[in-house]
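Sequence only, no structure available. Ideas?
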Amino acid sequence: MDSPLHLKTDQDSDEFTGRFDGALIGRARDQLDSLAYELGVLPLSDFVTVTDEDLDEYVDDEQLGVDHDLIDDSHDEDRVWFKALDGLDAVAPLIQFLQSNTDEIDDQEGVLRQLRTLESCLQDAKRRGILWHFALDR
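Reply:
I predicted one. Tokens follow.
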């Protein structure tokens, strides 16, 4: 998977989303997810929320054989949100491991910079009680 990850919060705040660039993390997501499993933490992919609207950007409903009469879209606006602590519990071990082990993933220094920025955003979100998730950047 090489789609950049976009940080979303349950409050309209560019303060968080504007600070985070998830392009390198998105490119290294498979490697990071494998590493997360080895470390016994949630993979970053588990924090991605994809809605029907998001999928419409990628695939035409007719290709999927979707019958809109069968879809309950009354909850279309509902998204899964995560506590910042859950993200910190996943990100911190990745950072610690990658700082101690070189050449584990592609563009490791760049990915580490982005993980540190994500960690900082999540620490701020935790202090403020802000919920978050990743969305695929189009």
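The longest strand covers residues 5-9.
Hope that gets you unstuck.
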